[in-house]
Amino acid sequence: MRVRLKADGRLVEILSDGRERAIAAGVTAAEGESQADYARRVRAATQLTQAEFAASIGVPIETVRNWEQGKRSPRGPARALLKLIERAPDLVFATLGPAHSAV
Q: What's the pLDDT tens digit per position in 59-85?
């Protein structure tokens, strides 16, 4: 499956004929929810600590802390990864492999 993050934050699947199909409808920060709250909510749903979550997705723990404290916002691939984790965490962690598996 080929996936693309559109500029407006939507995730779409790229079909074999080049057309796009939305795959993450409704998987965005809730109205009034900050990016920090969104990142925290996605991580909390996995029941992982910040350290475990960071290791699972292959980023430094400081990155996760900065997202959750609102010092930085996940962008591009990181935002797409959070959306995928929110939608299908088991699939994401299985795809990342044993080195990145959720505990």
A: 999 999 999 999 998 888 898 899 999
Q: Does residue 30 have a pLDDT over 70?
A: no
Question: Whole-angstrom Cα distance, residue 39 to residue 27?
Answer: 12
Q: What is the domain-level CATH number for residue 18? A: 1.10.260.40
Pairwise CA distance, residues 3 & 32, whole Å: 27
What distance in Å separates the CA atoms of residue 101 and residue 17, rounded to the nearest whole number?
33
Percent of the chain with pLDDT over 90: 41
- Domain of 16? 2-100
Q: How many folded domains does the chain comprise? A: 1
Pair 68, 36: CB distance under 8 Å: yes
Give the whole-angstrom CA distance, residue 31 versus residue 33: 5
